[in-house]
Specification:
0% strand; binds zinc ion; 77 residues
Length: 77
């Protein structure tokens, strides 16, 4: 029987190094993912492009970086 897919134990935001407060990472199960803060946020492609290819899908970006990015977009437009 194959093991269930587990979230990677990466609590650090790849952009700022802070805690990403990722719920699946904290609990070790994706079952809790529907309650994670990231479900109520949008991750713009431009934000994900800031990551190196090897950083993608390895750790969650933190809430602060998402908020910062959105406010920067807002100021630019
Ligand atoms: Zn961050």
């Amino acid at each position: 029987m194959p093991d269930a897919v587990k979230p990677l134990p990466n609590h650090q935001c790849p952009l700022c190094g802070g805690s990403n407060q990722c719920l699946p990472t904290d609990t070790g199960s994706f079952c809790s993912g529907s309650n994670c803060w990231c479900k109520s946020r949008q991750f713009p492609p431009e934000l994900l492009e800031k990551l190196n290819p090897e950083q993608r899908n390895q750790a969650c970006i933190c809430q602060r970086c998402v908020d910062d990015f959105h406010s920067q977009l807002h100021h630019l437009s």
